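Sat 14:20. Reprocessing the chain from the morning session after the first attempt stalled halfway. Input below, unchanged.
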Amino acid sequence: MMVNPTPPRILVLSTSLHPESRSRVMALAARAELDALGAQTAWFDCRDVQFPYMDGHAAGSHEATVALRTALGAADAVFLASGIYNFDVSAVAKACLELGGRAWDDKVVCIACATGSMVSFMAPLGLANSLMLDFRCVIVPRFPMATQAAITDGSVTDPETARRIREACAMTVRLASVRQGA
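Finished this time. Tokens:
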């Protein structure tokens, strides 16, 4: 197993539109951790764009879609942060999957979620399945989850949640480095 000496390029994708988003806080914590691990990080915040409806036609040439595909295309791995709603990732996270299309191909993907309770721990599996089966992504087998109690005043304050984010970031870097060298 050869590891590429070039630091992996990791896109941190924050999919929440909520102004006080806990998943965005997780994404920011992951970005800091990935930077500390020596990864080349890029940031894409879905609050900064207005995605079109997926119509199977004009949506592919929309400027927000092009920006997402460009960001995905430049990355070796993606750290995707989403809220959980009705035991599933957000509609925006799903839109990123659909609009990103083939730009998702062969990426290492880590999924982190803000949730109302830990009973939602299986919620990201539908997204993970689509990424694996449709785009041949390698899914990081750690899903950092954070409840409202884990985040205070815009930062991750729960030590266990912080540890899970660190471990997921370390595994994302490791897997992306191996994939680069393959």
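The chain has five helices and nine strands.
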